[in-house]
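Troubleshooting log. The previous structure file for this entry was overwritten by mistake, so regenerating from the original sequence record. Sequence copied from the archived sheet and checked twice against the printout by T.R.
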Amino acid sequence: MKAKPLSQDPGSKRYAYRVSKEENRKELKHVKIDVAEDKKIDLPRKRFYRQRAHSNPFSDHQLEYPASPDEMDWAELYPEFQDQSTGEMTNQVTIADIGCGFGGLLVDLSPEFPNDLILGMEIRVQVTNYVEDRIIALRNNHAKDKGYQNISVLRGNAMKFLPNFFHKGQLSKMFFCFPDPHFKQRKHKARIITNTLLSEYAFVLKEGGVIYTITDVKDLHDWMVKHLEEHPLFQRLGAEWESKDRCVQIMTHATEEGKKVERKKGDKFVACFERLANPTII
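Regenerated output below.
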C-alpha cells in the first residue's frame, strides 16, 4: 500500500502545522489586526510548504477570479485601505509582482512604497499559502505602525486572467523575477513574456509605467529582451537608469531565487522597459 504524502498524513508534523496555519489564516486573512492584542506570530517555515517548483500555466487549476475588475473585492486583501464610512477603497493596486514566489520582493517593496498597494500573483497553492501566512505574521507583528498593510497575494494565473483583475492603465510597475525558463523549445509558448502577453501587459500598465525583468538564465534574458524590444509599446531603459532606480536595487537582492543565485555566485541579467504612449490615430 502506497504511503500518504506527509502533507496528507494526519499523524505527521507537517500536516499538523498546515492545519494550524490554515485555521489562523481563515481567522486573520481578511481582517484588520487589533493593535491591543500585541501577540507575536512566528513567521512561517518553508519546509512545511513544500511543493513542485513548476506549475503548468495551461492547466485548469480551479482558480477563482472576478468577471471584471469592478467585481474584485480588494477590501478582503487590503482591509486597512477601506473607508469604513463608504466601504470604498482609498487606494488601488498599482504594483504587481507576477509569479511572486515566497514573497521576498513584496516584503522589501512594502516600506519603500507605503501609499501603493502591491499585489503578488502566484499559481502554486502551498507557495501562496506561505506568502499569506508571512503577510499575516508581518502585519500582526508590526500592527502598531500599521506595517505591511499595503501588500497582499492571491492565487492566480496572470497568463490567463490578468485583465479580470486590473483596469486599463491601472498599474505603474510590473515585476517578472526569475520566471520559469521553460528550456525546451516546445515549452517556450509557456514563457511569461510573449508577444500576445505583452499586449495584455501594455493594456493594464499605464503610459510611463515600467516592466522589470530579472533572471539568471541568459537565454531567457535574451528572449525577454527580444520580445519587449520588438513590441511597439515598450522601450528599453538604459543601464544608467537601472543603476539609479531603487526598484532594480531591491529586485536584484530581495527574492529567494536571487539570494540562491548569489550563494552560487551566479549571474543576474536585468532589463527594464518603459510603457510608451499609445500612438495617435490619424
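The longest helix spans residues 125-141. Archived copy saved in two places this time.
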